Amino acid sequence: MTGYSLWTEPWIPVQTLDGDVKKVSLPEALSEAHHLRGVLDPSPLITVALHRLLLALVYRTHRLRDTSDWEALWKAGRFNREAVAAYGEGRAERFDLLHPTRPFYQVPMMPDEKVHPVAALALEAASGNNPALFDHGKIEGATELPLDRAACYLLAHQAFAIGGGVSKPFNRMDAPLTKGLIVEVTGTTLFETLALNVMTRQYWERITPELEDDRPFWEVDEPPEPVKEGTVVRGPLHYLTWQSRRIHLVVDPERRVVTGCQIAQRYCLPKDGSPVDPGKCYYQDEKKGWQPRRLQKDRAAWRLTHVLLQAASGDKDVLTVLSWLAALRRREKELETIRLPKTVSLAVSGLTTDPKLAAKIELWRREEIGLPLAILDDPALVRRVNTLMQDAGWVENLLRRCTEALIWALAERQHLPEAVGYVFTGKTGQAKMPPTVAPVARSQGTVLRYWAAMEGPFRSALFQLPEVDFETVRAEWQNRLRANARTAFDAVLTAQQGAGAPWEVLSQLKHAFEVRIARIPMNGEGDSDDDGSADE
Q1: Residue bearing the bigger pLDDT, 370 or 130
Q2: Average pLDDT in the 84-88 region?
Q3: Is pLDDT of 535 > 70?
Q4: CA 206 from chain center: how many Å?
Q5: Helix or strand or coil: residue 128?
Q6: CA distance 216 to 374
Q7: Of 484, 493, 503, 342, which is closest to residue 416 (Cα–Cα)?
Q8: DSSP state of 129
Q9: Cα(124)–Cα(446) distance, rounded to whole angstroms?
């Protein structure tokens, strides 16, 4: 069976600046990156995995020791076609998906391992304990995959494989990107996206001090044996091409399609709580050390914007790729040797797993948050973003309490005074709110309806902050908070009225809500109310 080299074959799905969709090889993706809008795949896991592979190739083909090296690349506006081509000379078989002894990102056939349906390769397909997102273990509507699509899923599986389950040489552990959201800075072209994320080795040294024998996996002739305690990260090339699984693609030689796969544990990261990934937002846990912040099933990523911006300063959280971008922004203002785009997007990707069954994926998604770069390196503006989110969190808490008070009063009319008091103070007094109230209140969808309506206003406020007086921005923001909160709560009141709820209860809870919503804190940045917290 002839080979299939990812260096020469077109397999990466991309979109051109004209909007056309096509597939390109690895060297074409880099050489033509300034003419491409970006990688275009329906799976965010594949998109992130492809970016990581391309970033590894950028490191391998371009000198990026310090910021001056990066500036030269940015000013060129494109990757060096000759350098990319020179790197590929004599290496095409290193990228061969079907190589008989060292298939790309794989191992040879494993005699003692079971052959799974090809759907096991795709984390988002029905396989094992995963929900039936696709019927009967199918992937992309079939039980087999063409080689180009199999290559995409192979990369994503190595990056996002889920831990749990018996395997050799030790039980399966999470791949590097499984836990925690991934932040990528995206520009208007694939070149800008890759260049803005390709930190210099000086920055990598902060998170991977080893930096010894740092090579991409395809250049390693004798890979080390996996160890349960974890394999030390050697640098960007080692980490970006990490092999979390021993995988072998089973190929029909005549039709040249992948019909099955073998999957077993390979390398895992050390369990020392080190913030090794520049695209992850880490927080400090007293017992476990640095832990990655995760996507939440019921919370859109834009609601973490203030957390991500604060992490860029490394004050409490750590997000190295944004610290890097903030440093570039400061260099632009101080030295005026480069010109960065005025706005970028923060693409937040990842998956969430069932808290009761960690090996079961709930959802995966990718969201983009537009960001004026002027905010990134200005602590005052970052604090103001945090203030806006504190206001929104205050209103969320009020909405939750009002809905709980409503359900409580409808269930137990004699406790209507206590329910009204709960709206104002967050306390129930001597009465006890039944434990069934909170889940019933959540089922009304009040908070979800409110947050869904606030995404547009938040994006608008974010772009106003560098240019408009903050009191003006905040006043408009709070007006939108009140309006959308009223709409959300009125929807619940209307539904209850239609179900025959007594007007006495509805009118008193409506009045209490109106009194409280009128006084969102305005005395300063970061105010809280007597009922407590802001949204984190």
Answers
A1: 370
A2: 97
A3: no
A4: 22
A5: coil
A6: 35
A7: 503
A8: T
A9: 30
How remote is the C-alpha of 211 from its chain's centroid? Answer: 26
Q: How confident is the model at residue 355 (pLDDT cuts 50, 70, 90)?
A: low
- C-beta separation of 97 from 104 below 8 A: yes
State the pLDDT confidence band at 136, using cuts at 50, 70 and 90: very low
Q: Are 457 and 475 in contact (CB under 8 A)?
A: no
CA atoms within 13 A of residue 77's CA, in its CB half-sphere = 4
For 66-203, strand residue ranges (E) read: 116-117, 145-146, 182-186
**Quick one: tokens of 34?**
């300034």
Q: Which of 116-120, 245-249, 328-332, 529-533 has the lowest mean pLDDT?
A: 529-533
- C-alpha 512/C-alpha 417 separation (Å) is 11
Query: What is the pTM assigned to this prediction?
Result: 0.92
Per DSSP, the chain holds a count of helices (H) and strands (E) of 17, 12
Nearest to residue 390, comparing CAs of 290, 535, 510? 535
pLDDT tens string 15-56: 999 999 999 999 999 999 999 999 999 999 999 999 999 999
Question: Would the pLDDT of 59 be above 90?
Answer: yes
Average pLDDT over residues 420-427: 94
Residue 114 C-alpha from the chain's centroid: 32
CB neighbours of 510 closer than 8 A, spacing ≥ 6? 489, 493
Q: Residue 430: what pLDDT?
A: 82
Instruction: Please state, in angstroms and rounded to a whole number, the distance separating the CA atoms of residues 229 and 227.
Output: 5
Which contiguous run of DSSP H or E holds residue 494? helix 470-498
How many angstroms separate the CA atoms of 43 and 146, rounded? 16
Q: Which residues pair with 108 in a beta bridge?
A: none
493 alpha-carbon distance from chain centroid: 36
CATH 1.10.132 in the chain, residues? 381-517
Residue 456 above 60 pLDDT?
A: yes
Residue among 518, 515, 510 nearest 493 (CA): 510
**Average pLDDT over all residues of the chain:** 91
Which residue is it, tokens 């080795």? 201
Q: Which residue did the predictor score with more confidence, 532 or 179?
A: 179
DSSP 532: B
Architecture of domain 381-517: Orthogonal Bundle (1.10)
CA distance readout (Å), 372 to 80, 81, 185, 343, 378: 29, 31, 12, 4, 11
Q: Say what the pLDDT of residue 210 is.
A: 63
> In the 3-class helix/strand/coil scheme, how is 250-306 assigned residue by residue?
EEECCCCEEEEEEEEECCCCCCCCCCCCCCECEEEECCCEEEECCCECCECHHHHHH
Cis peptide before 169 (omega within 30 of 0): yes
Q: Chain-centre distance of CA 180, in angstroms?
A: 7
Q: Name the strand (E) or helix (H) holding 358.
A: strand 357-372
Structure token pair of residue 365: 């998604």
Residues 481/393, Cβ–Cβ less than 8 Å: no
Length of the chain: 536
User: How far apart are the C-alpha atoms of 343 and 336, rounded to whole Å?
Assistant: 17
